[in-house]
Amino acid sequence: xxxxxxxxxxxxxxxxxxxxxxxxxxxxxxxxxxxxxxxxxxxxxxxxxxxxxxxxxxxxxxxxxxxxxxxxxxxxxxxxxxxxxxxxxxxxxxxxxxxxxxxxxxxxxxxxxxxxxxxxxxxxxxxxxxxxxxxxxxxxxxxxxxxxxxxxxxxxxxxxxxxxxxxxxxxxxxxxxxxxxxxxxxxxxx
Length: 190
Description:
Layout: H1 2-16, H2 38-51, H3 55-79, H4 82-90, H5 92-105, H6 109-117, H7 120-147, H8 161-189
Helix pairs in contact: 4-5, 7-8
């Protein structure tokens, strides 16, 4: 249902705002400034680049897939090594190295490709949010340890307090943006 609704909403927005139908990849289109979205600017040009015969583009795509797959395999091997996990969780330098490993040395394929599609200021906001969340979670863990509270069952990272609060903020912001967009759409159509 989500995919069907996304297609329906895309068609409605494309009909209401014809500027979204223009190929904005690599050239300036007047009126597109208010649609500053990474995907709005990239999809049309990227799809055109894949569907036309360009051997260098296909070579780059294959190379990108192989690099992403290799990166994730190495990350899984390192992150599942029990000795590495013990070192990263129990020593200060291990924790620092684990952070640098994830943030700089071998970020996830998603994180490393994110910078290719999204402008630097947006990436900096996301990085700051991730850093703030990690520092907050570390502070909560140290506070619990000082109080002598047992850690309890190990929760997945996406179920931590920080992750759930962040997810709630993202969902709230998305719903607010959707509401503003729908209001603007109805205002334009009526």
